[in-house]
Specification:
With 117 residues, the protein is mostly helical. It is built from 3 helices and no strands. It is found in: Chromosome, Centromere; Nucleus.
C-alpha cells in the first residue's frame, strides 16, 4: 500500500494518536480505581466483628442448644435397674474404694500435698 492509496481524511496525526492513547490510559486507571474500591467493599461485607456481648450471647445460645439436645437424648433413655446382688455390691464397693484411694493419693514431695480440697 502506498501513501497515496490512503484516504487523506482517514489518516490521523501522531499527536491525535498520542492524545487518544493517554485518554485510554486515564480511563483504564479510573476503572482500575473503581474496581479496587468495589473489591474493598466486597471484602468488608460479612466481616463485621462481633462485640463482646454479641459473642457471649452467641456462645450462650450454642451452649443452650447443645444442652437441650443432650437433655432430649437423656429423656429418651429408660433407666435400667441394677439388681443388688452380692457380686454387684462387691464390685461397686471396690470401685468406690479405688476412687477414694485415687482422690486421697498424694505422692511424697508433691507441692499439691499442702492444698486442701
Amino acid at each position: 500500500m502506498n501513501q497515496e492509496d490512503l484516504d487523506p481524511d482517514s489518516t490521523t496525526d501522531v499527536g491525535d494518536v498520542t492524545n487518544t492513547e493517554e485518554e485510554l490510559i486515564r480511563e483504564c486507571e479510573e476503572m482500575w480505581k473503581d474496581m479496587e474500591e468495589c473489591q474493598n467493599k466486597l471484602s468488608l461485607i460479612g466481616t463485621e466483628t462481633l462485640t463482646d456481648s454479641n459473642a457471649q450471647l452467641s456462645l450462650l445460645i450454642m451452649q443452650v442448644k447443645c444442652l437441650t439436645a443432650e437433655l432430649s437424648q437423656w429423656q429418651k433413655k429408660t433407666p435400667e435397674t441394677i439388681p443388688l446382688t452380692e457380686d454387684v455390691l462387691i464390685t461397686l464397693g471396690k470401685e468406690e474404694i479405688l476412687q477414694m484411694m485415687i482422690l486421697s493419693y498424694k505422692p511424697v514431695g508433691c507441692p499439691l500435698n499442702s492444698l486442701q480440697f
